[in-house]
Amino acid sequence: MEKILQRVIDNNRNLYKYGKVADYIPALKNANIKDCGISIIDKDKNIFSAGDYNKKFTIQSISKIIALMQAILDIGIEEVFKKVGYEGSEKPFNTISYLGENKTEKAINPMINSGAIAITSLIKGEGDEKFNKILNLVRTLASNPNIDYDRDVYISEKNTGDRNRAIAYLMKSKNIIGGDVESILDNYFKQCSINIDTIDLANIGLSIANRFKDIEINADIDKKKISSLLIAIMTHSGMYNFSGQWSVEVGIPSKSGVAGGILSVVPDKYGIGFFGPSLDKNGNSLLGHSVLKELSKELNLNLF
Ligand code: GLN
C-alpha cells in the first residue's frame, strides 16, 4: 500500500503549480504550496502514509462535519434540519445569495459557510462551550487527545472574517440563528483553526467509515444513522459546487478545507486524510482531486 501511495503522490505532485494557496485568511498564505501528503487507515487500524503526511495544518471547513455531528448529538436530526437544508448547491462555499430577499428561510446546507455557522449556533453551550465540544469530538474521533487549535490562524480569520460576519448577521435578521452573533462567530473561527495532520483526518474518516462502533456517544441516537447522514451530506455537498464531478471522478464521500485538507470516507473500509494546500478555483485541494482520483481507480474505491 505505501508503495502505491508514494507512486500516486509522485505522479501528481507537480500539478501544484496550477493552483494557489488561500490568501483571504492572511495566516494561510504561509503554507508551502508544494506540500502533498496522504494517510490511509484500514479497519485493523493499520496506517499507511506517503509524502508530507506529518505536516500540521488547520482543519477549516472539515470541522463542519464534526460540528454537524455535535449539533445532532445535542438537539437531534429533526431540530437541526429545521434551520438548515439537505440540498446541494451550485454556489461557492462563501455564498450569500441564498440569504437574499424572498429566498429560503433556511441555510441551504450544512457544508457552505452560512449553514455551518447556523449549525455552530445550534450546539448547546455558552461562551467557548460550543467550540470545546467540537474540539473534544475531533479529539475523540481522531483518537488524539493532543489536538488543539492554532491561535494565529484563529486571530487572522477573526480579524478578516467580515464576509462570514455579514452572513451571520443576515441569518440573525431572518431568524435562522439566534443569540450573540459575535460569540457564535468566535466559536466558528476557532473550530476552523483546529490543527491536525493527515493521520488525524484518516482516523476521523475511519470512525465514520466504521459507523462509530468504537466511539462512546453520550446521546440516545443511532450511531449508524448519524454516519449515514454525514456520508450522504459529504457526497452531495462536501466539495461544494464540485461535489457532482468529484462523485463521478473520485466516488469517495469527502470534505475539504481551504487550508488544503481533505477528509475521505470509504464506508466500512478506510479512512483517508489528504493534505495539499494548492487550491483549485472552488477552494478544494487541487492535488487532492488528482491524487484521490488516481488512488480511487488504483484501489477500486469508487462507490458508484
Ligand atoms: N474558515 C473558512 C471560512 O469560513 C472555512 C472555509 C473553507 O474551508 N472552505 O471562510
Automatic annotation (TrEMBL):
Q: Which UniProt keywords apply?
A: Acetylation, Hydrolase
Molecular-function GO term, any one: glutaminase activity
Is Phosphoprotein included in the keywords of this UniProt record? no
EC nos: 3.5.1.2
Q: Which Pfam families match?
A: Glutaminase
Where is substrate bound in this sequence? Answer: 61, 113, 157, 164, 188, 240, 258
BP GO annotations? glutamate biosynthetic process; L-glutamine catabolic process
Recorded family membership: Belongs to the glutaminase family.
Task: Write down the HAMAP family for this protein, in alphabetical order.
Answer: Glutaminase (MF_00313)
Name under which the protein is recorded? Glutaminase
Q: Which organism is it from?
A: Tissierella creatinophila DSM 6911
Gene transcribed to yield this protein: glsA
